[in-house]
Design brief:
The complex is a heterodimer of chains A (about 260) and B (about 150). Chain A is built from four helices and 16 strands. Chain A has a six-stranded mixed β-sheet, with no helix packed on it. A six-stranded mixed β-sheet of chain A has the order 7-10-11-12-14-13, covered by helices on one side. In chain A, strands 3-5 form a two-stranded antiparallel sheet. The radius of gyration of chain B is 25 Å and the shape is elongated. Helix content of chain B is about 40%, strand content about 15%. Chain B has about 150 residues and is of the alpha+beta class. The chains are: A alpha+beta (about 260), B alpha+beta (about 150). At the A-B interface, β8, β15 and β16 of A face α2 and β4 of B.
Chain lengths: ~260, ~150
């Protein structure tokens, strides 16, 4: 294997994109699965796998993940819900890592959200905690550390992750102490991506691309694949899809000689 | 007497040059990954004052889009996930496009820190580099003029 392919995708629990009425568009998980399979990626990092239920109820087994796992037969996988919380809003939750090679040392790590008050459907709410998951795999004889995260969208709460940097700092702390090839993908929900990139650059990580927007609702580059000096990005693509309100970010990497 | 005249002529020439020069140094600095382009312009004005202007080029499409977004009348409220009001929906691409890959911006070589890149990354380093280039340009210009007046034997 000279290169390997990574797919980063916030799948919005399978809800498709409808220009006319995106909030009431139907879910079509078959389209999501088809889009993922089409890429034939070695590693797939997914956010918003499940649709949050009222009252913070988390279905077990998670229905979308179960269907994805069945459809992606050649893959090993790991999934985690965030901490169950009755305040959960009816959007996407849950992170998954799929890999063609076996995963081990999987973990999930809670990322607390600050008590910012915002209004949703006429009621005052505070955000629920977010999540970082990780696992290791071995590709072409190299052990690769994988991370997947979905951070709080502060810009949607009329705030900024630069004013509330704790979640980003917790992730940067995880990255700091690692030696060896590391990939961190996710929906970082940072509208000013330059500050995020600078922060992670200080930890020794670069993102694959910042040119192309990755979200349909607003022109932001929210999705990233960060890599460290043990990896070299060969090429990348942002692939539009109607299977979500996010585009797919695909990148190919090769291992650098130590 | 002749020597004094020559010295006076030199001073006068330099002063004239100071008035006439409209020296422009443009540095298109492809910063990390070549994604952010900055234009730095030095202009030596007629009164010998120097202005420095730095701004992003308009070809940074993402900055343009974000700027356009910030100009929207209701700003953040356009985001419809957390607001039941106005929708701000923009279809940015069509489905079914084949995947068009782009080569990743950082080559193996350029991923290693080199002095000019390092200088461009830090503000003080950038300023030093710019001042250095400016001084070099100015001295070259003056040297050329000097040579015109006092050619070497």
């Amino acid at each position: 294997m000279s290169t390997f392919k990574v797919l980063q995708f916030n799948m919005q629990f399978g809800q498709i994109w409808d220009d006319a009425d995106p909030d009431n568009a139907p879910a079509n998980l078959e389209l999501t699965i088809s889009e993922i399979l089409d890429q034939d990626a070695d590693i797939v990092l997914l956010q918003e796998v499940e649709h949050a239920k009222p009252g913070g109820v988390q279905l077990d087994p998670p229905p979308n993940y179960t269907r994805l796992k069945a459809a992606l037969g050649g893959y090993h996988s790991y999934f985690s819900y965030p901490k169950a919380d009755p305040r959960e809003l009816p959007f996407g939750i849950g992170l998954a890592i799929f890999s063609k090679t076996p995963l081990h040392d999987a973990f999930h790590y809670n990322l607390p959200s600050p008590p910012i008050v915002f209004e949703f459907e006429g009621e005052e709410k505070t955000p629920t905690d977010r999540l970082l998951i990780g696992a290791k795999t071995t590709l072409a004889g190299h052990e690769l550390q994988l991370f997947n995260t979905h951070l709080l969208a502060y810009f949607m709460l009329n705030s900024s992750s630069e004013d509330h940097i704790e979640q980003r700092r917790l992730i940067a702390r995880q990255l700091h102490c690692l030696d060896g090839p590391v990939l961190l993908g996710g929906d970082f929900n940072v509208s000013n991506h330059n500050s995020l990139i600078q922060q992670f650059a200080e930890a020794g990580y670069q993102t694959v691309q910042t040119e192309k927007i990755t979200w349909r609702r607003r022109p932001y580059v929210l999705d990233h694949i960060f890599y460290n000096r043990y990896l070299h990005p060969v090429r990348y693509a942002v692939k539009p899809t109607m299977a979500s309100d996010h585009h797919m970010l695909i990148a190919e990497f090769e291992f650098m000689a130590k | 007497m002749a020597g004094a005249a020559i010295v006076a002529a030199r001073i006068l020439l330099i002063m004239m040059a100071g008035r006439m020069i409209r020296l422009r140094v443009e540095l298109r600095m492809m910063l990390l990954h070549g994604r952010s382009t900055a234009l730095v312009r030095f202009t030596l004005l007629r009164d010998s004052g120097m202005t420095v202007a730095g701004h992003r080029l308009h070809d940074d499409r993402n900055s343009q889009r974000i700027a356009a977004e910030q100009r929207q009348p209701d700003g953040q409220n356009h985001c419809n996930k957390f607001s039941n009001g106005a929708r701000h929906v923009r279809s940015l691409a069509k489905s079914g496009d084949s995947v068009k890959y782009e080569s990743a911006g950082v080559s193996r070589e350029s991923s290693r820190p080199i002095l000019p890149l390092y200088l461009m990354r830090c503000r003080s380093g950038r300023n030093l580099l710019i001042i250095g280039l400016f001084t070099l340009q100015l001295s070259r210009y003056h040297a050329r003029n000097y040579d015109n007046v006092m050619p070497h034997p």
